[in-house]
Every structure is written in C-alpha cells, then in structure tokens.
Design goal:
Length: 479
C-alpha cells in the first residue's frame, strides 16, 4: 500500500500562521480504522488533518489544518477524533483553537461513523464556547455539516477565490444555479449571512488571525494582554467630530496608533463592530454608521441613520462575546430610530430585543459616547444609561430625545399652523431634545468636546478596571 503524506499546503498554512519553529504535531501517525470501499488504500498517516500546538507572539494556541489531498480532507471517525482531542487539550490549558478548513465534508465511506464524528466535534465546540476563543479559516470547501463547524466558531475568515462555505450547494437551491448566484462564495457569505468576519488572500487571512489573537485573552479567566502603548494618552483628535457618521473611522481615530480590527466587516454595514486598543487595553467597539468614507475622504456608501435587524443581531453577538471574555465595551451612538421596511419588520423586534438583552445582561465595563443623534427606543437599545452603561458621554452638538423636534411638534400639535409648528419645535428642542436636558436628568454623565474623547474614555475604562457586578442566579437567559 502506498502511504500518502501530508500535503505541503496543510503544513505550510500552520507554519505561516505560527511563530517560526514553534509547531509541535499531535497524532501524526493516526490512520483511518475503516476498511470499507478500500478506504485505506487512499488514506495515510494523519487521516487528512494535521493537528498540534504552537505559539503566536508567545501565546499558546492549538491548530488543526485539513489536507484536501487525502480523501478530499473529508471528516471521518479518526479525523474528527484528532480534532476533538485537540479541543480537550485546549480546554485543559485554556488556549484558543484555530481551524484551517479545506474539506470535501463528511466522509461517505464511513457513513454513521462519520455522522457520530461530526456530532462529537460539535459538542466539543459548544462546550468550549465562551471558555476559549475559536477561530476558523476556510481555504477550500466547507460544505454541509462542516459549515456548522464554521458557524459555531467565534470568528470565521474566508479565502476570496477558493473558499466555499455552504449548507446546501448553490445548485441544490430551488430556482438557483451557481451561474445565477454563487451562494457559497466568500463575497455572498460575508455580505449576507453574518458568519464571515473577513475575506482575503491566504496570506492576508493568516496575518489577520495573528493580529486577532494578539487582541484577545487566551481564555475566559484571563484578561486580554496589556500591550505597551506608544500613542499619546491624552491625544487630541481634531478631526474626530467629522467622522461621527462612520463608526469604523471614528474607532480607528480613537485607537492606539489608529489600529482597528473590524469584525463582520461586509455584513450589516450600518453597524460597526471590532476591537481597538486604548492605552494598551483591548476594548470592544460597537458603533452606528450612516456613511462609509474612502481613503480620499469621499462618501463611498451611505445608509439610513437607523438601527436595522441585521445590525442589531451583529452587535448583540459581538457584545456577548466581549462579555464572555471580560473585554470592556465602548459604544459610539448615532441613531435616528429603527429601520423602516417590510422586510425589516419581520425580524426587527426580536433582533432589537437580543441587542437590548445583550447590553442589559453584560457585566463588563460599558461606556457609551453619544456622537450624534440618540433618538427613541433605538437609542435605549444602544447601551443607554437605563440598560446599565457605567458612564455615558455626549459630544456638545449631540441630540438626545424621543425624536426630531419638528416631528415631535407635529405629533403633539397636529392642527397647528406651519409657523406655530416651527415655534413649538424650537421649544421642544430647548426643553427635551438636546444633550444638556439629558445631562440635567442624569442620563448623560458629562458633555465633552469631540476632540477630547480619547482621554475621557481611557480614563473611564481605567477607573472601571475593578468593576464587579452580580446578576440574578439562573441557568441562562432565554432571549
């Protein structure tokens, strides 16, 4: 029998990901036990997946990399057993698991053994959720049950050309074929499903994973590593106010050395999520966005300044991750209300409920900066004081209230003349619709100049470092 060895691709991905010379393989001699359909003639040592551990910038991580040259990288009994064993070790040591996926999916030659194998890996992932970070990168096929594996991960990356992620193949969808719409493509998955965090070349993905690992704590009992900041602590950001409509730009301007790791970048672009460093401390950011500016400062895309269903779900999932791993949360609020469309109305109430629950249930330090408008229940859901924000700042030109003053005047005085409505709107804005009115009532802790935001939020998070907050005893919530 000719024994196949691991392809250079599976091994080279691991070596490119980890620090030089740090990888140690586990289970390299494991082989498939099945004999049906002459499977062993095409299998070999490792059974199509390379597993082991190494370090990224000195941080211990566990890695598995599938090899498509061995039975298509398909998942059978021993293949899955190696991954499950890797999870057991990662849980004992409290270190992240990184999966590099390139597989034909379930190994049909092993049938029910393969099904059982999938379930075993799913269970390991479920038990590890919220305990250790789980990162998946899709370099080839990731279809059927294997797509669930990607969905169970905390962060998922896709190679832009060869990466394919799907439960049902594009040709299996009624009325569709791959030439019409490739629902398995990286572009489709990144923009429509909320599973994929970033798309790029293989080198870009591996580099991004290294950057992400450096941002995160290695488990739920450790704090994210404090790095030495070379940025100015009290740096004044003169152009920050101009970025209030683009949350990603605002986050990067606030961050140490303007580094912002954005998650779910192409999904629900009206909501921005990601990680920044503030004086060396990792902070999770959720921000509203109504405009995207390109490198030339021009408006590349534009959205309603409204909270959408997809945006709410995106932020809720991100906030829950931050809470699980003790990462403080900063929100940059600029929202005019809820997205109004027939499609949104089908899911909006539940999605906003999830976001509301996420902020109310989160016990990590929470700081909110109102950078523009903060109107109605959409504002309440965005980490308001009433939901438990520890500190709320607002820029001097911010507006806080139930709705725009002119709209409020029309509702309150439906029979008034246009001139009277203008006066009533001015009166309403002065009494109810401005940041000073909210501050007088204690809903805003401090009104600040936009340029000074960095020093205020750094000071706030440093003050909140020792925060402890209990929640009612329960098994888990149900929202």
């Amino acid at each position: 029998m000719e024994v196949q060895t691991m392809s250079n691709t599976a091994e080279s991905r691991i070596k490119s990901l980890l620090d030089d010379g740090s990888f140690v393989e586990i289970g390299g001699s494991v082989m498939a036990r099945a004999t049906d359909f002459n499977i062993q003639a095409n299998s070999g040592a490792g059974d199509g997946v390379k597993c082991g551990y190494g370090v990224i910038d000195g941080n211990l991580v566990y890695v598995y990399s599938q090899d498509a040259s061995v039975l298509g990288g398909s998942v059978g009994e021993m293949h899955a057993k190696k991954i499950a064993n890797l999870y057991d070790m990662a849980m004992k040591m409290g270190a992240p698991v990184i999966g590099l996926v390139d597989s034909a999916g379930m190994r049909l030659q092993e049938s029910t053994d393969a099904l059982e194998a999938f379930g075993t890996v799913y269970r390991k992932q479920a038990l590890a959720s919220g305990v250790i970070p789980q990162i998946t990168a899709v370099f080839g096929k990731c279809g059927g049950g294997l797509a669930v594996l990607a969905g169970l991960a905390d962060f998922t990356f896709m190679e832009s050309e060869k990466g394919k992620l799907f439960i049902n193949s594009p040709n299996a969808l009624p009325g569709n074929e791959i030439s019409k719409e490739d629902t398995s493509s990286a572009e489709f998955q990144a923009e429509n499903t909320g599973v994929v965090d970033a798309v790029g070349t293989e080198a870009e993905i591996l580099s991004s994973i290294r950057s992400l690992v450096a941002m995160l704590p290695i488990n739920n009992e450790e704090e994210a590593a404090l790095s030495e900041s070379t940025d100015v602590l009290n740096r004044v950001i003169a152009n920050l106010e101009a970025s209030k409509e683009d949350g990603a730009l605002a986050a990067s301007l606030l961050s140490d050395n303007n580094v912002f790791f954005e998650t779910k970048k192409a999904y629900a672009k009206d909501m921005v999520t990601g990680f920044i460093k503030l004086n060396g401390m990792t902070i999770g950011v959720a921000a509203n966005r109504s405009k995207i500016y390109n490198e030339q400062g021009e408006v590349a895309e534009e959205f309603d300044a409204a909270l959408s269903s997809k945006g709410a779900k995106k932020a809720a999932s991100f906030v829950e991750f931050c809470d699980a791993f003790n990462i403080p949360v900063l929100t940059l609020t600029n929202v005019n209300g809820f997205k109004a469309s027939k499609c949104s109305e089908k899911t909006l109430a539940k999605a906003v409920a999830k976001l509301t629950y996420a902020f109310a249930n989160t016990s990590v330090p929470k700081v909110n900066v109102i950078v523009g408008k903060a109107f109605g229940s959409a504002y309440v859901a965005m980490n308001s004081k009433s939901l438990g924000a520890d500190l709320v700042f607002a820029w001097t030109n911010a507006k806080v209230g139930t709705m725009e003053a002119d709209m409020a005047a029309k509702v309150m005085y439906p029979d008034a003349s246009s001139e009277d409505l203008k006066e009533k709107a001015k009166e309403y804005e002065a009494l109810q619709d401005n940041v000073e009115a909210a501050a007088r009532r204690g809903y805003v802790d401090q009104v600040i100049d936009a340029a000074d935001t960095r020093k205020y939020v750094i000071s706030a998070f440093e003050m909140l470092l020792t925060k402890r907050e209990d929640r009612p005893y329960k098994k888990h919530g149900t929202v």
